[in-house]
Structures are given as structure tokens and as C-alpha cells.
Amino acid sequence: MLQRELHMVCKMAMFMDLNISFTKDKKTLQNIIETAAHLGYSTVAINYTLESQQKKPEIPKPTSISDLFDKLPVVQGRSRPIKVLNRLTVVATDPSHFRPTSEYKLFDLVAVHPKTEKIFHAACMTFEADIICVTVTEKQPFHFKRAPVNGAIDRGVFFEIIYTPAIRDSTMRRYTIGNSLGLMETCKGKGVILSSGAEKPLELRGPYDIANLGILFGLSEGDAKAAVSTNCRSVVLGGETRTTAFGIIHTVKKPPSAPTPSDKDESGETDNPASKRAKMEQ
Fold first, then answer.
1. What's the mean per-residue pLDDT of the chain?
2. Beta partners for 112?
3. Which of 157, 247, 253, 263 could form a disulfide with 152 if both were Cys (CB 3.0 to 4.6 A apart)?
4. What is the mean pLDDT of residues 58-62?
5. 191 Ramachandran zone, left/alpha/beta (phi>0; psi -120 to 50)
6. How far apart are CA 1 and CA 116, in angstroms?
7. In percent, how much of the chain has pLDDT > 70?
């Protein structure tokens, strides 16, 4: 019954999985993307992880999609090729670990995985990120507080829960469910996306199955559906806006400032340097 209701609700939705783990094994990566297309996902994002706590972390360079496929696989039931994005996830234990640079702009999406409450607060309130990752492989090291969570939602930043650890290991399943329920109590199911974090094709699940799984994580039926469709679309659009705005901010010229009283002499005329007066007299 529930599966049928979700199917009707999701019938016209565009499904996305914004966390496909990058691997240097080209064939495996191709197979994961092909499987995602077969399951009905219209968009996926290849996730590159930056472990910032390392001594000399190097921001990875995303693989060109044209190097993966001569022709992208067609989405099941859509008759159009799957869209493949690149994503960077920064694992941060200190605010200095998240430093947007020109290299960040190589990625369509930017995520941060905060390891402390201090970083989580900064990620919610100030970091220019599209996604905040929720820990699912261990017990959440701090409680989710309403103020930063609501701050992130107001800023259009989404919280991500990945489901593959829950199907790999029973202990991680408990952590995933427990940590997810803790987040849902605070965010009330808003501003959440569900992703796979898949490292191989067999770890992918169809969008209807994930919507069902979302209910186990504390989401309502409507919020579970949004977590694999409309919320993901908002993340992608937010990523496009962030990169576009970044470019605009750095290309707008500063307007000339108006003359101040100190620039004028007692007669009320602007006091120009001698060189400018000479040009005006010519």
C-alpha cells in the first residue's frame, strides 16, 4: 500500500543521487552511473572527498565526464541521458579546513562534513556550502541544536544522510537510524536529502525504496519523496547560483565615490589636483 502511494506521489518527479563515491577504477564508476540511470535517476554527482586534517591535503581534480563516457546512458523511463555532476566534500575538524578557492569552483556542488559541534555551527551559519553531511558510521558526537539547523535551512543549505552504511553493517544501521532521528527531531524533516554514497553498483537502491527507507529515518512520506527529488533539485540550483554569484561579485566594478565636503574649497567648488585643473583648462 505504502509503496503504491509513494509511486503515485513520485510518478512525475526527477530523482537524483548526489553522492556517488569516486573511484579510480573507471569501469566501476561507469557501472555505478549506468545502474543509476537504469534505476531511474536523472542526475548523479560523483563525490570527491578532501580529508583536510591531513598534513598536506590536496584538492582533487574532477574527472571530465567525456573521459568516462563517449555517450551517457539513458535514464530509464525518461528517454534522455543521465546528467553527471562533480562534487567536493570537505571533512573538517577546524574552521580553517573549509577555505573556498578557485579550485572549489571546478565542482558543481560543495559539501562539508563537520566533525565537531563548532564546525557544524559554522557550516550552518557561515560556510558557503550546498550540503552538510550527517555522520552515519558512528554515534553523532554532539546534539543537533535548533538555532544552527534552522539557520542552515533558511540559507538554503541541505543536510545529507547516506544510506549505504545502513545496508552494509548492522552497527552502522543503528548509528544511521539514531543520528537521522536526532536530526529529524530538530529540523522536522525539512531541508534533507537522501544519497547513496555507493562505492559499487550493487549498493544502489531505487528511488521508491529510498523513499521508504526515509520513513525509517524519521521522514514523513512527503518529506521522504522530496529528499530524493525536489530537495535534490534545489541543491543543484543552489550550487549553480553560488558559483554564478561568486563570479558576479568578483567582476562588478566599484562605483566612483561622490565628492566629500573636504574635497571642496570655501567657494563650494571641488578642489581638484593641479594636474586635473590643467586638463580642465585645456
1. 85
2. 90, 132
3. 157
4. 88
5. left
6. 41
7. 79
